[in-house]
Amino acid sequence: MMRGRPGRVPLQFLPDEARSLPPPKLTDPRLAYIGFLGYCSGLLDNAIRRRPVMLAGLHRQLLYVTSFVFIGYYLLKRQDYIYAVRDHDMFAYVKLHPEDFPEKIRKLMVKFLKNSIQYVEISKMLVPFSLIQLFLNFVERVFVISKVYINLCVNTLRLKWSP
After folding, report:
1. Cα separation, 1 vs 88, whole angstroms
2. How far is CA 26 from CA 31, 32, 33, 66, 95, in A?
3. How many domains does the chain have?
4. Residue 64 structural domain
5. Residue 127 DSSP code
6. C-beta neighbour count of 61 within 10 angstroms
C-alpha cells in the first residue's frame, strides 16, 4: 500500500523543492493574525500569572509576537508548498486525462452580449441624447459588467468544486 506521494521523505518539514516558491509576504494577513495570537497569548500568560495584563512584561509580549510570527512564517511556507504540490498533481492529471475534462462551450455569453448590445442600440435610436441617454449607457455597462463578473465567479466555482 502506498502512503503519500512517490519520493516523499518522512519527517521533513520543508523539502528543498519549496525553495523555488516565492516566500510569503511579510504583510500577509495570515501572518498578522498569527502575530496577534502571539500577543493574546502574552496577555493570557500575564493574566494566568496574576500580573497586570496590559503593562507587565512588554518584552515578553514582544517575544511572543515575534516567535509566533517566525513560526507562522514557516507554517505558511509549508502550506504554500503543499498547495503548490497539490496544484501540480491536479494539473498533471488534467493534462494526462483530457477526456475526463472536456472544453466548455462559451456561446451563451456571446449570445447574451450580442442581444444586450442590440437592445441598447435600439433604445439609443428611440431616446434623444439627454440625461436619459447617459443613464441608459450607465445601466448597460453595469449590466454587462455584472453579468461577466457573475459568469466568471460561477466558472471559477465550478473549477474549484468539480470532482
Report:
1. 23
2. 7, 8, 12, 12, 35
3. 1
4. 25-160
5. S
6. 20
- Widest CA span in the chain: 78
Specify if 136 maps to a domain: yes
Residue 47, SS3 per DSSP: helix
State pTM to two decimals. 0.56
Please name the helix (run of DSSP H) or strand (run of DSSP E) that holds residue 107, with its range, or none: helix 107-126
Name the grid cell of 48. Answer: 494566568
Instruction: Give the chain's end-to-end CA distance (angstroms, integer).
Output: 24
How many angstroms separate the CA atoms of 87 and 59, rounded? 41
C-alpha cell at 139: 445601466
Whether 12 is in a domain gets the answer no
User: How do the pLDDT tens digits run along the chain, 163 residues long?
Assistant: 456 666 666 667 777 788 888 888 888 999 999 999 999 999 999 999 988 888 888 889 999 999 999 999 999 999 999 999 899 999 999 899 888 888 776 555 555 555 555 555 555 555 555 666 667 777 788 888 888 777 777 666 665 555 5
In 3-state terms, what secondary structure has residue 2?
coil
Asked, for residue 104, whether it belongs to a domain, the answer is: yes
Whole-angstrom distance, CA of residue 123 vs CA of residue 121: 5
Structural domain includes residue 51: yes
